[in-house]
């Protein structure tokens, strides 16, 4: 892709309300733009990275027998009356009326809809288990939206729902999905920790959170540095360096974390209130046992930026990078330089997503933008072209060297 | 994928309100399920087909130098006051207030947001042209939602916006995108006709619609059977068999069409009202010239079903098919049959998306479901397996024959 046609409006200064490193960098790199408090547009570089995150999620869930569907954002009040949440849910729920004065809400979560969608179908044990997910925009009217994508009012989530005959089958799937999450986050270049959490407005019996360790974030988590088990509640009252109450030898550490996933053993909360029953092998009417598994996609994007950036630069993890190679001719008005750049672009673009900086800008501006944009491999066409050499940078290692044009691709690694 | 784990709740009868062939078939094949009037869940088979439609759109637009972004559904009133549409737009606009009593609407279209997103960036002619699109959920509170996805209240669209220095450049891009549309629809297996249309609530100078010829649909279009030019307005008052006023030899034909795309030369309507100006080569402040290009993804899905179905069966076009090959062992309790089915599945699944009907159901039910689900190539494992043969059906041609297990893949064509 030509950079002149890519919409990446980099900024010299971050917006005043940006008080987190990743928020500053995302605004400066032209990744996001605010439309209203807590409401953002994902610009092309962010959309490309997010498409990769979505692809990784689909690949990992599909190969574990989950199926994708898409539920509506507009949800009628009657479904929420069935579950009892219309009254329970606070002002975070966006509510509206249609032209005929009927009540709707904008879904912050989809337990009601998925139960309505599946309850007629799951009439016998033969139809279980079942695992359905969606990638969708969600809404929550936060009192104080902040940290950009970390606490937004409109955000993107993957939500998976599983259905089972009994608790044992739920446990099996819960473990399977928990492992899938670990794989997904690793592929996205994120180090996560699993901590048990409360069940909040979703409800259910048991829940776990996937936390990205970070200097910023909404939660402080305490965890044992030896047995690696961590939990907000169980360890509450405990502080840095206290002995671990779970194992003999560990001590407690504290960290400010970003929650990127939250998974729940719902049990029969929704199936009982919304009448989702199946006939078991003995013909007995039995409530379906459910699990639900959230993964905040827009928030994960921000966590990726947070973990992989410095103040004026970032480097995208391989599988999430919006482009893989950045080709930068320094003098776009020099015919030979541009011809070489075009030729390098064409060759590499057969194998990788390549961005070519064809803009008529000064080298200083090009390098500043390139550092912000964070493409992992960089090829600079400059004064050594006369000797058939270009400057090649592996931005993961920082290694910079002159390489022969014909040998560039040998230095790029998947 | 195992059919036992796929959520495709086929029905014997279509819902009572389904009065269109495609609506009946989509409900019966387990493609969609209604959550409220005009509000649907896209079940896994539909979501898979829609993912293919989205992939085709991305491929065709990306290779034409368009970039994907994602704008919010929640749009603040002040943006719509700038364009003047807050007052102009009727009760089709879903409006709501946030917890701080500020007005928002749910976007039926994104001219305001895209102008806000780009106007600071496009400060000079050097930043033009620019082409940005998104694939996103839109909202329109229809008075009478009907025909399922054809006139829904929550629907999925691709909307592209282009930005230019002048009308000549807009014309060039308008033609380029018009050609891209023709290619996209062809790849989706749809025959479309282009007719000029009015500019409606979007505004602008000139607009064209892409119509799928169909017995159902919201619009009757009249077109010349010789010069192939058709137009709602220009030909209004003309009827079937009238002579064409445009060419010498043609006569007029009428058809009930489904509008799947609508493209507009917006001109400077939004840039002037919303202050999107750039400096031209002489330093003169000039309004940006804009185009916008909609493509109804959920509606296109329905048009694909309408054009490729009969009452009890459909066959998906190749590039849109949710699965490509359907492997159906008739006796799941026979060890040899299942072993052969699994082996065929594993081999074909390396190259194609394959669905295997592992359900313990009677052959009659399996065939009825398979006809509804509409997978193009079918392999039935039955009584001829003892001779190393399976029944192979190419559902495009209807040709059915016994083939050797080892030779199945020779009969499947991309």
Provide a descriptive summary of the structure in words:
- 2 copies of one chain form a homodimer.
- With 414 residues, chain A is of the alpha+beta class.
- Chain A has helices spanning 21-28, 44-62, 77-83, 85-88, 111-118, 167-187, 269-273, 297-307, 335-349, 363-373, and strands at residues 32-36, 39-42, 67-68, 74-76, 95-97, 103-106, 130-139, 154-164, 192-197, 206-213, 219-224, 230-231, 252-267, 277-279, 285-287, 289-296, 325-329, 354-356, 377-381, 389-394, 399-404.
- In chain A, helix 9 links the parallel strand 17 and strand 18 (354-356).
- In chain A, helix 1 crosses helix 8, helix 2 runs antiparallel to helix 6 (167-187) and helix 2 crosses helix 8 (297-307).
- The relative contact order of chain A is 0.13.
- The interface between A and B is large, with 63 and 63 residues.
What are the main properties of this structure?
9-stranded mixed β-sheet, 414 residues, 10 helices, homodimer, 5-stranded mixed β-sheet, alpha+beta
Mean pLDDT of chain A: 93
Assign an overall shape of chain A. elongated
Estimate the helix proportion of chain A, in percent: 25-40%
Q: Count the beta strands of chain A.
A: 21
Largest interface: A-B, 63 and 63 residues
Alpha-carbon distance between the termini of chain A?
Answer: 20 Å
Q: Percent of residues of chain A in beta strands? A: 25-35%
Please give the radius of gyration of chain A in angstroms.
Answer: 25 Å
Number of helices of chain A: 10
**Uncertain spans of chain A, ≥5 residues at pLDDT below 50?**
none
Computed structural class of chain A: alpha+beta
Oligomer: homodimer
């Amino acid at each position: 892709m030509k950079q002149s046609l890519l919409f990446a409006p980099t900024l010299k200064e971050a917006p005043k309300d940006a008080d987190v490193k990743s928020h500053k960098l995302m605004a400066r790199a032209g990744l996001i733009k605010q439309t209203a408090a807590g409401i953002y547009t994902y610009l092309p570089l962010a959309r490309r990275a997010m498409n990769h995150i979505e692809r990784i999620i689909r690949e990992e869930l599909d190969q574990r027998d989950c199926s994708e569907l898409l539920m509506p954002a507009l949800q009628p009040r009657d479904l929420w009356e069935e579950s009892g949440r219309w009254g329970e849910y606070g002002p975070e729920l966006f509510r509206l009326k249609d032209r005929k004065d009927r009540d709707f809400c904008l879904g912050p979560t989809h337990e009601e809809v998925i139960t309505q969608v599946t309850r007629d179908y799951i009439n016998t044990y033969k139809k279980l288990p079942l695992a359905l997910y969606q990638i969708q925009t969600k809404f929550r009217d936060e009192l104080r939206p902040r940290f950009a994508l970390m606490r937004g009012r409109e955000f993107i989530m993957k939500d998976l729902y599983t259905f089972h005959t009994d608790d044992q089958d739920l446990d099996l799937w819960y473990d399977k999905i928990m492992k899938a999450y670990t794989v997904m986050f690793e592929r996205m270049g994120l180090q996560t920790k699993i901590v048990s959490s409360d069940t909040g407005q979703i409800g259910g019996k048991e829940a776990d959170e996937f936390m990205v360790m970070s200097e910023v974030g909404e939660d402080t988590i305490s965890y044992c540095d030896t047995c690696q088990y961590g939990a907000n509640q169980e360890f509450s009252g405990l502080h840095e360096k206290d002995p671990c109450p779970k194992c003999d030898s560990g001590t407690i550490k504290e960290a400010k974390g970003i929650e990127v996933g939250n998974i729940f053993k719902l049990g029969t909360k929704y199936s009982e209130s919304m009448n989702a029953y199946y006939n078991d092998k003995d013909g007995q009417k039995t409530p379906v046992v459910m699990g639900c598994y959230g993964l905040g996609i827009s928030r994960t994007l921000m966590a990726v930026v947070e973990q992989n950036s410095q103040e004026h630069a970032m480097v995208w993890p391989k599988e999430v990078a919006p482009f893989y190679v950045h080709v930068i001719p320094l003098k776009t008005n020099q015919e030979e330089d541009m011809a070489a750049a075009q030729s390098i672009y064409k060759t590499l673009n057969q194998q990788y997503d390549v961005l070519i900086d064809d803009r008529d800008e000064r080298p200083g501006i090009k390098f500043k933008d390139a550092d912000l944009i964070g493409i992992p491999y960089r090829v600079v066409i400059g004064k050594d072209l006369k000797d058939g050499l270009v400057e090649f940078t592996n931005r993961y290692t920082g290694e910079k060297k002159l390489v022969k044009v014909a040998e560039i691709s040998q230095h790029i690694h998947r």
